[in-house]
């Protein structure tokens, strides 16, 4: 029970630090008039997601906070895999067990479980996508970062394009032109409806899939980041203004309490969205490997 208590205390400490940082991270939040407003928000919420100022430059290339975090997420994924598997052990340590569990889950349950026996060859890509999205999402809750890189549309969009290229390429490589013909003229549909269903399937497969795959991840992380920042920052500002506004500072209690609940719930959303993105990528590849299904 001791280790569980330590994990719980560590989790609470991380949450408290992250909440404190989140509470003061909203741009121009301190200009909020707590005597007249009940929630404090920046004049433009885009400020929560755009980081145009360069941290440093490498020749003509400016490294912004977003660019830096993308490279940091990639480095974390590579380092985690390297240190977990650089020296195979009969009895791996705790970190090795966690990484082996993730690899087995993606390879066996997602790749092979969805695509079939051929799924193993796509497992490295699906594992890379899962870990990168997971780490990028977790940045939302990490102290001193508090910004999920997947809340910038470019990241989910690029990953969705990679998935789109793979399943379209695999579809043509395995089935030739029959891949497209099977989509636009589905034999399992009654003859009179084939043209309509075929048109819908064609648009869905070649146009909508990458868009919906990217938007699903992007929208969930934008909503979470926005809610956390506004709720926690508003609660914090009302508390800090108690000397000026008196009892009105109690308005911050429900905002802050709700923000804490959202903070805990966001962890579930973060893991779930990484899983859904990876699973749908596997499903789309499966429809190219086995178009008859």
Structure description:
The protein is mainly alpha-helical and 293 residues long. The chain is 68% helix and 3% strand. It has a two-stranded antiparallel sheet with strand order 1-2. It is globular and about 75 Å long. The mean pLDDT is 81. The chain has one domain (23-289). α5 runs antiparallel to α7. The N and C termini lie far apart (48 Å). A hairpin with a 2-residue loop joins β1 (54-58) and β2 (61-64).
How much beta, percentage-wise?
under 5%
Gyration radius from CA atoms, angstroms: 23 Å
- How many strands, which pairing sense, and closed or not: the largest β-sheet? 2 strands, antiparallel
Q: How many beta-strand segments?
A: 2
Task: State the helicity in percent bands.
Answer: 55-70%
Order of helices and strands: HEEHHHHHHHH
Count of folded domains: 1
CA-CA gap between termini: 48 Å
Spatial order of the strands in the main sheet? Answer: 1-2
Which class best fits the helix and strand makeup?
mainly alpha
Please state the overall shape, judged from the principal axes of the Cα atoms.
Answer: globular
Task: Give average pLDDT, whole number.
Answer: 81
- Count of alpha/pi helices: 9
Low-confidence stretches: none
């Amino acid at each position: 029970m001791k280790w569980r208590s330590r994990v719980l205390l560590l989790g609470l400490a991380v949450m408290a630090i992250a909440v404190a940082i989140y509470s003061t991270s909203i741009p121009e939040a301190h200009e909020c008039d707590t005597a007249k407003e009940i929630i404090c928000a920046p004049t433009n919420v885009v400020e929560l997601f755009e980081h145009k100022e360069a941290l440093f430059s490498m020749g003509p290339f400016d490294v912004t906070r977003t660019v830096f975090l993308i490279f940091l997420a990639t480095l974390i994924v590579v380092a985690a895999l390297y240190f977990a598997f650089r020296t195979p052990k009969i009895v791996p340590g705790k970190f090795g067990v966690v990484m082996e569990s993730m690899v087995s889950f993606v390879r066996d349950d997602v790749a092979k479980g969805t695509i079939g026996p051929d799924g193993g060859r796509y497992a490295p890509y699906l594992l890379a996508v899962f870990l990168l999205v997971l780490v990028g999402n977790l940045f939302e809750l990490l102290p001193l970062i508090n910004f999920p890189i997947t809340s910038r549309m470019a990241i989910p969009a690029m990953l969705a394009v990679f998935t789109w290229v793979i399943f379209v390429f695999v579809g043509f490589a395995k089935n030739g032109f029959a891949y497209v013909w099977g989509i636009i003229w589905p034999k399992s549909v009654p003859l009179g409806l084939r043209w309509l269903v075929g048109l819908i399937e064609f648009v869905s497969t070649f146009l909508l899939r990458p868009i919906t795959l990217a938007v699903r991840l992007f929208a969930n992380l934008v909503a979470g980041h926005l809610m956390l920042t506004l709720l926690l920052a508003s609660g914090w500002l009302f508390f800090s203004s108690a000397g000026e506004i008196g009892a009105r500072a109690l308005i911050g209690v429900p905002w802050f309490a709700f923000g804490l609940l959202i903070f805990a719930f966001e962890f579930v959303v973060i893991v779930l969205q990484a899983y859904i993105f990876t699973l749908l990528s596997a499903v789309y590849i499966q429809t190219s490997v086995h178009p008859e299904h």
